[in-house]
Amino acid sequence: MTENNNKTVKWRISLLVVFATLAIAGFLLSITKGSVEIPLSEIFGAIEGNSSPIYGNIFMNIRLPRTIVGALVGMNLALSGAILQAIMKNPLADPHIIGISSGAGLAGILVIVLFPAYEVFITPVAFLGAMLAAVCIYILAWKNGIRPVRIILAGVAVSAFLGAGISGMMIFNSDRVHNALMWMVGGLSARSWPHVAMIWPYSLGAGIVALLSARYINILQLGDDVAKGLGVRVELTRIALTAIAALLAASAVSVVGLLGFVGLIVPHGARLMVGSDYRFLLPASALLGIALVTVCDTIARSAFAPVELPVGILMAAIGAPFFLFLLRREL
Fold it and tell me: How many Å apart are CA 135 and CA 143, to the nearest integer?
């Protein structure tokens, strides 16, 4: 038994190395490919300070900050989805589908449209919106306990209601509708160093806490009675984990808008390969999330050049059929 466990652990560690390689490859692809292809030699030169001015400017001021934002967004949404699927015991849970991202989005839109001078506060305001959406979903889904199907139905209803609020804000503030439209689709266009500054503290802090929470998530998978027997305060732990997932989703939404399906696709793909042990599933999801978003963004901005397609459209084209497949399988 011990020998089998050791082999399993080694296999999972090997997969994490592969996922890390994919994340690095996606990052490099994102900073080198586009309407202007930058050779790796020029990137190393820019890092050392002796590249050509054109390549150096594109790399340092356009590609690098955009790629960092994409990587952090992919990591945040993937971790958020993995945590939500665990605590809600629902394989269809995703911050976008169940309405948490919509709560963050509506709060963010309010700041962008009504208080544009206070955009620095978008992330904390979006977090409050995400948490309020999560509370509403829990309340609506609760009836002698929580069932997975009720969470999805409640989440869809809350998401539709909040989406109506976002649409209303766009109608009454039509002069700023372009920014709102980009927010609703989800995209990395024009993301720069200020956006990196907006997201990285939340990604670092909430990401570390999420990875350290793997033990508690594993215990929750054993059932509430067993978890209580092991000394875990189940409801308090669920609330804390929901707050972590909401903060991760809100920080992503605050810089790229309503980018969906990353938190649905990535945890499922990671689970199929590394299993349901969250000590490995969470880092695997984070790495695959980085790879997926950076690669998809590269494709979205390159496939129809010079027209740039928001990455949210490509993710929806991939994620919607995947969601229907899971829905059909689960129900």
Answer: 14
Q: Specify which residues 132 forms β-bridges with.
A: none
In this prediction, residue 145 carries a pLDDT of 64
Q: Please give the structure tokens belonging to residue 316.
A: 């929806």
* 3 state DSSP class of 277: coil
Q: Which residues contact 94 (CB under 8 A, 6 or more apart)?
A: 81, 84, 85, 260, 261, 263, 264, 323
Global pTM reads: 0.91
User: Amino acid identity, residue 308?
Assistant: E
Tell me, what DSSP letter sits at residue 308? P
Compute the distance between CA of residue 275 and CA of residue 280 in angstroms, rounded to an integer: 8
| Structural domains of the chain, with CATH | 2-330 (1.10.3470.10)
- Which residues have a Cβ under 8 Å from the Cβ of 291 and sit 6 or more positions away? 19, 22, 23, 25, 26, 74
- Per-residue tokens: 237: 């732990």
